[in-house]
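Worked example

This section walks through a single chain of length 210. The input is the sequence exactly as stored; nothing has been trimmed or padded.
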Amino acid sequence: MSTRSEETVFASGKLIFPNPKEDKLDTLEFLDAAKGVVTLVELFGTLFAVVKSDMNGNIQKLTKQYQKNPASHSTLHDMIIAEKQQGGVYATDALLWLKRALHFFQVFLEGILTDSQNGKVEEDVSSHLSNAYKITLERFHNFLVKKTFNFLCGRCPHRSKLVLTMSLGVEGREEAVIQGLDPVVSSLKRTIEVIDKLYVDNGLDLEAGA
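Given that input, the structure is written out below as tokens.
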């Protein structure tokens, strides 16, 4: 079975987030990777349309904030700290919600990845989606939104369909998909940890203000 990375959606490397430098993430590289995740989510179908729309909106807000002063906003850390000093919350709130959405997909994809690495292949992966929602987004949603998400979790595409999507619609590339997914999940986890640290270290009350 071929395992060439160019045979999957991960070939371009656009879903890999930048390595932090002194706990700072390059703003443009981060935004490019976030757009890559949105592209992957879009391939998964209309099930995730609401989350995709929210992610796009927050990416646009962060891009707008960056463009106000590219030189001083070259890293997410610098941009958020500058906004804090000015008493603003525009980019701070956008990054917080984008981080939550990225965390949602990281936990979901990690569930599929871990099962695959452990030789556990089950078509129904809705439990991974439900678990991801409970861990990352549920606490910030009202009753109606929770009900909608729980309904959508029950309509999660089967594993084989998701794998086929990530292999660009070509059969027989599952091994390549899993190999490509591993570094994506790892970079997502690392990025989320860096953003969490940024908010905690600067008293930005990471998990408040749903």
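What to look for: The helical segments are 27-43, 49-68, 76-85, 90-117, 126-136, 143-153, 159-166, 174-201.
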